[in-house]
From TrEMBL:
It comes from the Bacteria. SUPFAM superfamilies: Tropomyosin. Residues 14-76 form the T-SNARE coiled-coil homology domain. The lineage of its organism: Bacteria, Bacillati, Bacillota, Bacilli, Bacillales. Gene3D superfamilies: 6.10.250.2540, Designed single chain three-helix bundle. This is t-SNARE coiled-coil homology domain-containing protein.
Length: 170
């Protein structure tokens, strides 16, 4: 009996466990399907990881390029700083020249005004001297004219006297 009982129990238990066993097989199949899906997802993540690695490499390459560009910009910035210093120096020199030119202009203007006022005085003095000389020449001309008339008159008188004296001698 024991064997019968065990067989019966086994049969009853098998019958009772059969739906659970089917459910477990269904679950096992579902887990296999889920495992396959996870393997597909893992493969996709691996593919995405490889893509990200490629993108990282590209970003590293771009970073290196930007580092080179940054160095060039730094170099250009240093050159501009040097040029700014040169321009500042030139501006200071130009400012100094501008100040000197303004001072020179003021001095020249003052000297020119002195020269112009002296020139006006010289012109007035020369005009006055020319006028005095002209008056002197007019007087001398009048004196020469008078002397010429007198000389001509005297010559005339002398010729008359000479003529009279010749006539009287004859």
């Amino acid at each position: 009996m024991d064997k019968e009982l065990i067989t019966t129990l086994k049969s009853v238990l098998d019958d009772a466990l059969q739906p659970i066993h089917r459910q477990l097989e269904g679950m096992d199949q579902r887990f296999d399907s889920i495992d396959q899906r996870f393997e597909g997802i893992d493969q996709k993540f691996d593919s995405i990881g490889q893509r990200f690695d490629g993108i990282d490499q590209k970003f590293d390459s771009i970073d290196q390029r930007f580092d080179g560009i940054n160095q060039k910009f730094d170099s250009i910035g240093q050159r501009f700083d040097g040029m700014d210093k040169r321009f500042d120096g030139m501006n200071q020199r130009i400012g100094g020249l501008e100040t000197e030119l303004k001072e020179f202009r003021a001095e020249t203007k003052t000297a020119l005004q002195v020269i112009q006022s002296g020139q006006q005085g010289t012109r007035q003095e020369m005009t006055q001297r020319f006028n005095e000389t002209r008056e002197g020449f007019k007087r001398m001309e009048a004196d020469f004219t008078y002397v010429n008339h007198k000389t001509a008159d005297h010559e005339l008188k002398f010729h008359r006297l000479e003529s009279e004296s010749k006539q009287n001698r004859q």
